[in-house]
TrEMBL record:
Domain Tyrosine-protein kinase G-rich: residue ranges: 149-197
PANTHER family: FERRIC ENTEROBACTIN TRANSPORT PROTEIN FEPE (PTHR32309:SF13), TYROSINE-PROTEIN KINASE (PTHR32309)
Start-end of Basic and acidic residues biased regions: 233-244
An MF annotation (GO) of this entry: protein tyrosine kinase activity
Localization (cell): Cell membrane
Name by which UniProt lists this protein: Capsular biosynthesis protein
Record field: transmembrane: 18-40, 175-195
Length: 244
């Protein structure tokens, strides 16, 4: 069965348009690099850890194990509470309304390890100091409000967020973005090469005709360059003036 392109044709097209492909690849790399360092705002993240449990005077091991399992089942409830308007409104007040509660909800993520009562509160912001402040204020608001809402009497903040002296942005990832730009540029270059080959409908060499399996009746060689009679006479006239 005939195919549009054989492997040999594909290689020939790629070789023929290698400069175009390289140009597109370099262009994609440069555009991605400019976007990373000039257009995209770097985001920083900081986190704090809290432990939520219920104290009990019962020293029975079975009872304590049951309480731990109950606390683990409540972790998802605590996660929802951490990003609830009641908590975020408190955080909004404590940061002097730098962000609204809705904006804070987009900046805060809560994660937990499997079978663990420890929750990680991670805040992201373009300012590393603000990211640490949001994380800490969220933990403090949770510690203040949760006992009255959930009847939990033991909330411990295990670690506070601190902005590093030389913070590293969590996004964007420069090398990843530039690699994607290089890959996208190369892909566009290959697409352009095949589109250019399909739309190219002129013949410049005898092998282009031979590829169609049709006989070559004749060819016209390259015409020599020549000067018109008027230009030749003008040139002779200028030479005579120069000699005289």
């Amino acid at each position: 069965m005939d195919t549009l392109f054989s492997i040999k044709d594909v290689i020939a097209v790629l070789k023929k348009s290698i400069l175009w492909i390289v140009s597109f690849a370099v262009g994609g790399l440069v555009i991605a690099g400019l976007a990373v360092y000039l257009l995209i705002t770097p985001m920083y993240a900081d986190n704090t850890q809290i432990l939520v449990s219920q104290t009990s005077e019962n020293e029975n091991a079975i009872s304590q194990n049951a309480e731990v399992q109950a606390n683990l089942q409540l972790v998802n409830t605590y996660r929802v509470l951490l990003t609830s308007p009641r908590i975020l409104n408190e955080v909004e007040k404590n940061i002097d309304e730098a962000y609204t509660a809705d904006e804070l909800a987009d900046k805060i993520t809560v994660s937990t390890e499997q079978d663990s009562q420890v929750m990680n509160i991670t805040a992201t912001d373009s300012d590393p100091e603000m990211a640490a402040t949001i994380a800490n204020e969220t933990a403090q608001a949770f510690k203040k409000i949760t006992p009255t809402v959930m009847k939990v009497d033991n909330i411990n903040i295990l670690s506070k967020a601190h902005a590093a002296e030389n913070p590293v942005p969590v996004s964007p990832k420069p090398y990843l973005v530039m690699a994607l730009g290089l890959l996208a540029g190369t892909l566009f270059g290959i697409i352009f090469a095949f589109a250019r080959n399909l739309l190219y409908n002129t013949f410049k060499e005898e092998k282009d005709i031979e590829a169609l399996d049709v006989p070559l009746l004749g060819s016209i060689g390259k015409l020599p360059s020549y000067k018109s009679n008027a230009r030749q006479k003008k040139g002779e006239f200028n030479e005579k003036q120069t000699i005289s």
